[in-house]
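Quick one: Tetratricopeptide repeat protein from Chryseobacterium formosus, structure tokens please.
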Amino acid sequence: MKKLVIFTAILLSSVFSACGFYPYGEDVRFYFLNPKNFSYQSYSSFYYSSLSFEQNSEAVISNQDNEKLWRKYCNNKVLINDISSVLESYSFSDIQENSTNPFLHYLYSKKDTEAISYLKFAKNCEYFNTWQDDPWERNENTVTVKRNDLLNKATFLASKSRKSEFKKRYAFLALRLAFYNKDMKSIEKIYSQFFSADQTNDVVDVWALYFKAISERNPALKNLYFAKVFAASSEKRFVSWQYFASQVPVADVLNLAKNEKEKANVLLLYGLYNPDKNLKNIKQIYAENPGYDGLSFLLYRELGKLEDWVFTPYYSLFSTNDDYWGSDPENENVLKILERSDIDRRYAKEVLEFIDSVDLSKVENPNFWKYTRAELLLMTKNYSESLNQIAELEKLLPTQNPMRNNVEMIKALNLFANQTYGNAKIPDAAKDIIIKNKDNKHFIFALGRELEYLGNTDDAALLYASLIRSKDDYNFVYYKSLKNSNHTYGTYYVDYFDYLDAVYSPEQLQSFINKINGLSKNSDSFYRDFHLINQSETNSLYDLLGTKYIRQNKLNLALSAFNKLGENYFDAQYSLWERDGKDNYYSSSKVFDQNPFYHLKYTPDFIPEKEHFRVNKISVTKKLIEYLNKANNSKEKDRDYYYFLVANCYYNMSQYGNAWMMRRYSVSSAGNYSIREDNQEFNTASLAKFYYGKALENAQTDIFKALCLRMQGRCENYNYDFIGENTTNSFSQADDYEDRRFEQNKYYQDLRNNYSGQYEDMISGCESFKAYFKARR
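--- reply ---
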């Protein structure tokens, strides 16, 4: 059932995002805890994730308890790696007196026949210690019989062994063989004969208890045993967690625990099964066993949860994973997402209050608890106190301590956030930290977001821009804008240019350009060492600046920005046809394929081109200004003509035209609703409708007036489409949609009422447009 839910969720994600991908969960999670900087690698399979746990090989590799036990048996005169070679790689035939392996050489030199015999017997059992029998389908019964023979021999050798360590080792082999034979009765019998759950002195005892737990029929006692195994062996932690039955009431298991340590072990596993707030459980473990490293790890995990719950929505403006699968689309509203972040900040304060109440001299790794306190103070926006805690940690932690890097990142976040709106900057004390962590994309983005929230959009943009040169090619920062709402579902950013394109005002963008133009003269080496934007990027920003002014219909300002780049730039970037370097010509997605003044998409050509010029952003802007000046000149005899050409250009600069690249850098067949300020104009061509109306006002023939009304009506239908996309929520409204487009379109009504002779020609198609335009005079 769980797999079905996940599949359904992924399917819904594909439906909602037109391209089939929508980031969620681990894609968007913000975190600053680097597990390599902390001492809980033995719990690595249980690091916090917004999705689930998974087995982590680091937890197994870091243990080697069995090798350590053998080394102790050899009086510490053999290296761990030499023992590992024999245990992991040697076969039965490799165990010989002439072996060069120091472990085997030591045993043979001591004439330790019992140890050598045990190793050979263990190697004989290896093939049968697996569910995967013979890939060629060997008879199952044969394997079972052989296992049973080995089981009986192991039990016999255990009973006859003179040394207690080999008595247990043979008995353990018997337990494992019984497990793979699914013989629970034999497990019970062998365990009771050779082991005791009250005595887990070494790794063999712990591994034996693991099989005992599997065979145990009492659910509460089974959980108790698995909790003991989990605590004692990192190699068995993941499988113990898998077998642990979290639905068994915790009180039933605690009643069987014989001491505070066992109670803490039990509570730890129940805590790991809790994906929600776990403070109550942490408090219980602290009361039972405050020095338990499992308690510190649960706190580490709880801090990971809070990073996700607080920082993910605050910095990325994405909801956390549990909200993502909710049925309420309002969960995607960024204001509600920020409200959720504030709610979880209150929980962070509860955890902080608990830490302030504990005796740090009793906990494992007090410095980690102090670090947690510093980050929780950041979460609760008590920046000054967090910096005080960090100052104390900096005195306590040696410079080579890996935790210092995490301390420094939290310090930088505090320094950035602890500023007033309008006066925020990149603090000098944070600059070295930023340089050191400049490839940590989420950290750098978080700093930029803090500055953006505080009104410094210049340095914020610089930090966002630096993400494109990070050496980390696998992790991406997905983020939204405060302008997002539930109506812009699926709108997110992963590239700073797209973000500036959608969010920054022309004034903010101009300020950023001024900033980067001045960096080369800046005496502060930080900016040179951190990230310098190259000339190609700067050119693209000027292009964007002009495009933003086009969106605002500030044509002279747009032309001024485009003139910064010059004709050569536009000849290379926006020419009608481009050369690939091999004398082959091709059209790119941003190329103007037709002159926007004379041609309309999906409409037969009906206006002769009187002027021929290379079409690009700068030439279109110049001509639009020129034609507007002529159209607005009361002495111009062809005002209707120039107004019509102007209207065509504005029409083509909408999503329905051939010059959409004057306003956008991409369009989608799935819809072009966005948070850009000209969203309505881009989707409705209302300026085109206005100027077709001006052409109508200056028209001198009824036939041309009819054509102007027909074009106004076409634009009005786009307006109906736009309104329908944003307000139509029922099939009953959609059913009469086509009728409404014509019956309520006032321009078509005017056409029918006032130009009845031309109505059928105009409405039936576009074939008569050429004749009607020609009849302008």
